Amino acid sequence: MNNTDNPFYREMILTKDGSHSLYVPSLDETYHSTNGALQEAEHIFIKDALKWRAINKRALNILEIGFGTGLNALLSLQYAQANNLKLNYYGVEKYPITEQESLLINYADNDGSLKKGFMYLHKVEWGKWNQINKHFSLFKQQADFRFMELEANFFDVVYFDAFGPDVQPDLWTDKVFELIYNSMRRGGVMTTYSVKGIVRRAMKSVGFDVEKIPGPIGKREITRAVKI
Description:
The relative contact order is 0.16. It contains six helices and eleven strands. The N and C termini lie far apart (39 Å). A hairpin with a 2-residue loop joins strand 6 (129-133) and strand 7 (136-141). It is an alpha/beta fold. It has helices at 37-53, 71-82, 99-104, 112-123, 174-183, 197-205, and strands at residues 11-14, 20-24, 29-30, 59-65, 86-92, 129-133, 136-141, 155-160, 184-192, 208-214, 221-227. It has an eight-stranded mixed beta sheet with strand order 6-7-5-4-8-9-11-10, sandwiched between helices. A three-stranded antiparallel beta sheet has the order 1-2-3, with no helix packed on it. Helix 2 crosses helix 4. It has a single domain, classed as 3-Layer(aba) Sandwich (Rossmann fold). The longest helix has 17 residues, at 37-53.
């Protein structure tokens, strides 16, 4: 897919921590916090979801809602390698970024091996499981979040990283959260940057135990939801 086919035309931007993100003019929305894409992803999804759930675990299944630039997948791959953890990573994205865009993103520019891994995440085939290395396998599904096909009782960790509820409220509904809830194992955790009341109420309505926890730089609080 190229940008001429994509209603979400994107522009590359630099966030305050020096890492890239993408800006969608039609939505006036960025893929990450302008305070820092890297620090936001590390805090919300790695520290408060993956690391939190990985205690005493040797293998986990991860679902990402909004594969986007591949930053969360890259950081998860890096964490898995550093901690001898096996991850099965399932990313859902309706509008994948182009190969040209992925080549310009600077997340791993200072590490040749990591850069190679990052590019591989974007190059592997959609719609099938791909073994990236001994620690990490990846399945990318190009789909609308509202109509995902997810295995029941499978995921341990969920990164909910869709565009914001003010911009795309139909992605933050009880119907979507019910699909995710049913796909998760008991004890599974989901984190997201939004703490809007309507979002937390939708999560609670399908069975999640929901709490607000401290957020990254520029974001006072975030949401963590657990399937109990």
